[in-house]
Design goal:
The chain is built from three helices and eight strands; from the N terminus they run E-E-H-E-E-E-H-E-E-H-E. By secondary structure, it is α+β, with helices and mostly antiparallel strands. 18% of the residues lie in helices and 38% in strands.
């Protein structure tokens, strides 16, 4: 498989991934969050990814995650973006969380894996810091 060269921007702050029950209202602090955040409700849960500094101490959260923003816009006709980024990381034993938006994608890794992720992805991506 030929890997497309992407430009990735590392977001500067640590993120947290918060978990709530499926019927929980969206917390006011999340609605007022500044910077990067993503709110997803499914039939099973409510998840909020946001700046770690915005998460109240009593919220169930996985902390110390970092995000790589794929330079976009990508367009919906492009295929294989997730696979081309996630496969080399899976082979390097790095777990990810992937968030797609209308214009681009965000690849999240634990802070402890940031350097190794940069090394793996820099083989076929230009990596910059925001």
């Amino acid at each position: 498989m030929k890997i497309k060269k992407f430009t990735l921007f590392i977001l500067p702050k640590e993120l947290g991934i918060c978990h709530f029950s499926k019927n929980s209202p969206i917390p006011k602090w999340a609605e007022k969050s500044k910077g990067f955040y993503s709110i997803t409700r499914t039939l099973d849960e409510l998840s909020i990814v946001c700046l770690q500094e915005n998460i109240p101490p009593d919220v169930m959260a996985e902390k110390n995650w970092r995000a790589f923003k794929v330079k976009g816009p990508l367009g919906f006709s492009l295929t294989g973006i997730v696979a081309s980024l996630s496969k080399p990381l899976a082979e390097a034993q790095i777990s990810i969380l992937y968030i797609s938006t209308y214009e681009t994608d965000y690849l999240l890794v634990e802070e402890k894996n940031l350097q190794k992720t940069k090394e793996v992805l820099s083989e076929f991506c230009d990596i910059k810091t925001l």
